[in-house]
Amino acid sequence: MHAVLPDWKIWHPLAPDRPQAVIEALRNKHLKPYSIVWLNEMQQYLLPQPDGPKAAAALQNLLADISEGPILLLGTMWPDYWELLAPGADGEGGLELAVANGAVGQLLEQAITITVPEAFTPTELDAVAHLVREDPRLALARQRASNGQITQFLAGAPTLWRRYEQADAPSQAILHAAIDARRFGHGRLLTEGFLKEAASGYCKNIWDSLSDNWFELSLNKLARNYRRLPGPLIRYRVRPDEQPVTGDSLYYLADYLEEKGRIERQKIPPEQSLWVASARYSLHPTDLIQLARSAQKLKNEHCVDLYVRASECGDAAGIHWLIRTKIGRRRLVRAETLIDDHAPSGRLFAELSAAASTSGLVLDAERFAKRAFLLSDPTGLRRLAYDFAASGQEETAERLYNWGAASNDMVAISWLTRRRLAQGRRQEARRFAEAALSLGFPASLMQVAHDYLSSDDAAEADHLYRKVAELGHVGALRREAEEVSRYRQHRTALHLYRVAARAGDPLALQWLSWHHEGRGEHLRAEELAHSAARLGNAHALHGLAHLRLGAGCQDEARRLNLLAASMGDTNARDWLARNSSSPSDSDDTRMPLPSS
């Protein structure tokens, strides 16, 4: 960078952590023109959740703002991370694919990529000989790196790999546990407790010969610097402005060792202790979910423990996903056990009921539906009963609906009310409907009232309508009146409007006013319109004025509009303003049509 842009300033954001350093600096506009933003090990800026995508979005905004430039954004990462994060990353869902398709992928899509080869040829090195001579580190790497592996040498690769290969068995066990943890989805930071428990499984062949303090001795050797180069394991020091996530010491693998270790161990299965240690010591839900999915792919039973720990850390999606996987594979008994033990959920029991039903397990489906209902999710019971009714199994459906009605489910009560009416068992239907009304649902009792009205028992119908009104459901009566009138059930609508009007509904009073006006009962119509206006619906008077204007009574229209305007109706005021000059001779005597 200094060789190519000698006058530019280099900024390497680090604190309080890498993503947050980027976000805060760009938010506060600390970056000046002619700056190089150096994101060494760029995945450490982009992968952490939730700040990684935020940092990516902030960097996109920086690149898009030409007033901030010129600025060079220079990042480095190992090829495995590029394949993981770059646009079009091929994954099976989860964190990687979400990151690649979001702000991180959009940022990397703008990148000009330079692939650093595994090794530089002598010709390539000769072409940059002047740069090599000017930097003693490059000169040393040119001299000592085997087969032109300059990058690896600069990363301390030879020393790191030699320390790994020459480490004693307990130290190698710790490193193998750390490498496997990273390749199966654990985050960068590993606690000391995790490393100790995980590594114990990698020592099974030498366990009896280990000293009591084998772990502490091996960990100290691995974390010791050599010729100012960090060791294979590097202790992470929590900065003063950071909130420690655990009282345990934190370590991370040297980058090159992690990269090469992934390749070396890619076909070697992990020890069981890795999953046990992860479930006990991993603290971040994202780590736990990724490890759980890895364990599940390997058909390892410890995946359940990891999903459960993730839910305990605040991410229940993993255990729910596992349960739904079991349901999808028709492992219903196992799914029920998981729900009972780890995720009591009405919705999951409802899904379990649906799966049992499609598998022909009627009694299990009914049992699961009832369990869902008791956990406040009635959808399973309703769907199951509906399916039975639709397939002609009405007795089975009725048994389920009766159970739901006994538990005050309104869909069940409504269905039973309709069924009893269809069977001519009106008194039973009425009992169901009155129970629904006591719970605040008037629709079923209005169905029964309609049935009385259809058999010319208007008195009993009005009695039921009044009962609905007395319990405060006047609006429901009026809305039902509007609905049945659309289907030309005028007799039923008239009864409903009358009951609602007696209960003081201003819109029902308006409708009855216009109804009586149409029948020539003008005094009654005006009386009802005045009642509606006193209840805040002056539009009833304006609508009545419109009807009288249509009958040629302009003076009556003016009188009623004056009354409506005095009570706040804006349509009446507009009409009076248009017709104030000469009402008898004006051509513009149009009025807005009254809304029904």
Structure description:
The chain has 596 residues and is mostly helical. Among the domains are: 9-115, no CATH class; 157-308; 332-407. 63% of the residues lie in helices and 4% in strands. The strands form two sheets. The chain has a three-stranded parallel beta sheet with strand order 1-2-3, with no helix packed on it. It has a three-stranded antiparallel beta sheet with strand order 4-6-5. α1 (18-27) links the parallel β1 (9-11) and β2. The longest helix is centred in the first third of the chain and has 15 residues, at 169-183. The relative contact order is 0.04. Mean pLDDT is 84; it is low at 91-98 and 582-593.
Helical residue percent band? 55-70%
Order of strands in the sheet with the most strands?
Answer: 1-2-3
Largest beta sheet, briefly? 3 strands, parallel
Q: Structural class, from secondary structure content?
A: mainly alpha
Number of strands: 6
Q: What's the number of helices? A: 35
Uncertain parts: 91-98, 582-593
- The shape, in one word, is elongated
**Strand percent estimate:** under 5%
Distance between the termini: 77 Å
User: What is the overall pLDDT average?
Assistant: 84
C-alpha Rg, in Å?
A: 39 Å
